[in-house]
Amino acid sequence: MKLVTPETPQTDREALAASPLAIRGLTVSYAEKPAVFSVDATFQPGKMTAIVGPNGAGKSTMLKAALGIVTPLSGRVTAWGNPLDTMRARIAYVPQRASVDWDFPTRVLDVVLMGQYRQLGLLGRVKTRHIQTAINCLERVGMDGFADRQIGQLSGGQQQRVFLARALAQDADLYLLDEPFAGVDAATETAIISVLKSLREQGRTVVAVHHDLSTVADYFDWVFVINTSKVAEGPVAEAFTQANLQEAYGGRLATAQIGVTG
Amino acid sequence: MGEEFVVLSLAPIVIGICAAVACAIPGNFLLLRRQALIGDAISHVVLPGIVVAFLLTGVVSAWPMMLGAGAAALVAVGLIEAIRRLGKIEPGAAMGVVFTAMFAGGVLLLEQSDTSSVHLDVEHALYGNLESLIWLDAVGWSSLWDIEALRGLPPELPRMALTLAFVSVLTWVCWRPLKLSTFDEGFARTMGLPVGAIGLALVVVAAIAAVAAFDAVGSIIVIAMFICPPAAARMMTNGLEAQVAWSVLFAVISAVLGYVLAGYGPLWLGFDDAVSAAGMIATVSGVILALAAMFGPCRHRSGARAEPS
To answer: Which residues in B lie closer than 8 A to residue A123 (C-beta atoms)?
Structure first.
């Protein structure tokens, strides 16, 4: 099977230029079966978008492929209309907590300083202002008391907040988060959502892979529904509907648990 | 500690230190990336490399052999990657398959070729010839300032010192990308770092250190130094900078103590002959690792806390 990435039609250009992250014809395959098939997505500037879908639907894979962490079979990804590689300085990514080894010998402050790699470069000295920025970011997620803590000593929720602080240190315009609420305590969930909402108030764009359908309507204003292929995309009121979720989740959906709008 | 020490022991000790530290530094990152076995793999696959180099050139000299060893290391790295990706199996298994097969091939090749007239055998490959790297031109400590005498130093010494300098400078310059991509590869990639190239460069640097050290001190030390000092160091501290410093200290202690114990230890115990310095250095590093595992302050993984709170 040969997959062809279609030419951009003239009408799509404006949408691409406005979108902090636009995906066209993205297909990813780990084994023979595609994990993500021919997906188009146009994330909206200044909005909080949830990517939802059943387990194994390709939510995280789509995000990783868009960022080049896994190599897609085909597809084109633009950020504000430009090739993504040229816009990396404006994009912050929060990986799944479980994707790293938390026994790595380093402190919380060092992890947050990693977010300032672009400012520091190869051999730039870490100055007081870099450390101050890192501490400020830790403060925003309620972790400023933990700067000198070994990362292995943190709880799951604390680890997640440190990852978010590292992304804040990047001072980006687009924040991409992979399951930020997975396995965290209620206090962490509240802290994270308030930080994300404050980012939106500053006009920044937030896109998060999300698994808890019951909070979608509370937390997010746009939604992208995926089950290998795209099912729906749009404002929560329009796209987060019974019909779309039924299509994505099939028989696995217990309608009573979710507050769908339609 | 006079003339005799300078002639017989100074050069081997310095070479041993350089080799141990040059392997221990990249070993820290290989360990944290769960790739520590690659040092084992590289130091085994150099055997077919040097045999082929000998068969092609017909001489036992350093440069053709190091080129052969380097080529074999590259072939091995390529094979490991190919097996890992095509077979979709874990890297440890791919390394195990490649290095045993290539080492066995090297043994067969060595047996079948006419190497009886030259100093080339499996024991040499394993233990090296650290004790034979003596400085005949030296007359005492003053020889350190004597250009003529310095020219008579074993060539392994400047070669190993250069390798150590190369490894150290590269690690210092690439510290941040190396640390970032070792801790969180996905995030490093989103920052635009060439994580694939960084990973490959680390393996290549490890291979260079392994090949240079193998020539001077044999593969036993190489295998031990890639793993023991970094692993012991990890249990002494929870900071990467401190871990690398500890690993350097442990490597130096292993080299010095191992050499001295090999040379004089059996005499102190009433035996006649000295034992292999390479073997003793590797043993000392193993003992240090055992001690760190028993008494090191940071030996408990956070997943399994010592005292439940």
So the answer is: 173, 176
